[in-house]
Specification:
It contains eight helices and two strands. It has a two-stranded antiparallel ribbon. Helix 2 packs antiparallel against helix 3. The longest helix is centred in the last third of the chain and has 26 residues.
C-alpha cells in the first residue's frame, strides 16, 4: 500500500469523525453526517480503501478516541444502541466502492443505496436487541426518520464523488 493511499484512507476516517460531530439528536439515534462520509469513502477511494478508512474509524472509536457522535468513544458505544450502525460503516463503504468499481458512474447510486441499506439493517437489528426485542419500535425510531435525510446524503455523495474522482487520482 502506498503512502498516498494510506493518507486518503486516514483522511476519510477523519472526515467521518468530523461528520459524527455534526449531530442533531432526535432520539436514541442522532442525525449526523457520518453516512455521507462513509459513502464518499467507498465512492471516491474504492472498495478496498473505503473499507480500510472505515475500519480505521471504528477502531479509533473502539479504543476510546472521541470520534463517535457527541465526542463519545469506547467499546461501550459500539455495544450500545447505535453500535450496529457504526459496525456497518466498513461494509457500506466497501459496497459503495465495489459497485462503483464494477459499474462506474452507474454503480455509484446503486452502491450508495445498498450501503445505506446495510447501515439500516445492522443498526435496526442492534437497536431492536437493545430495546428488548421490540424491532417494530426500533424501526420506527432508528430507520424511518432517516429515510429522506439519507436519500439526500446518498445523492449528494454521488455528485461529490463523481466530481472528486474526475479531479483527483487516488490509486
Amino acid at each position: 500500500m502506498r503512502g498516498r493511499e494510506v493518507a486518503f484512507a486516514g483522511l476519510f476516517a477523519a472526515l467521518t469523525a468530523v461528520g459524527a460531530q455534526i449531530s442533531i439528536p432526535i432520539g436514541p439515534v442522532p442525525i449526523t453526517l457520518q453516512v455521507l462520509f462513509v459513502l464518499l469513502s467507498g465512492l471516491v477511494l474504492g472498495a478496498r480503501l473505503g473499507l480500510l478508512s472505515q475500519l480505521v474509524y471504528v477502531v479509533m472509536g473502539a479504543i476510546g478516541l472521541p470520534v463517535f457522535a457527541n465526542f463519545h468513544g469506547g467499546f461501550t458505544v459500539i455495544y450500545g444502541p447505535t453500535g450496529g450502525y457504526i459496525v456497518a460503516f466498513p461494509i457500506a463503504a466497501y459496497l459503495a466502492g465495489l459497485f462503483t468499481e464494477r459499474l462506474g458512474r452507474r454503480g455509484m447510486l446503486i452502491g450508495s443505496i445498498l450501503g445505506v441499506g446495510v447501515i439500516y439493517l445492522l443498526g435496526w437489528l442492534r437497536l431492536g436487541l437493545f430495546m428488548g426485542g421490540d424491532f417494530e419500535k426500533a424501526f420506527l425510531l432508528g430507520v424511518t426518520p432517516f429515510l429522506p435525510v439519507d436519500a439526500v446524503k446518498a445523492a449528494v455523495a454521488v455528485v461529490i464523488a463523481d466530481r472528486v474522482r474526475k479531479a483527483v487520482e487516488i490509486g
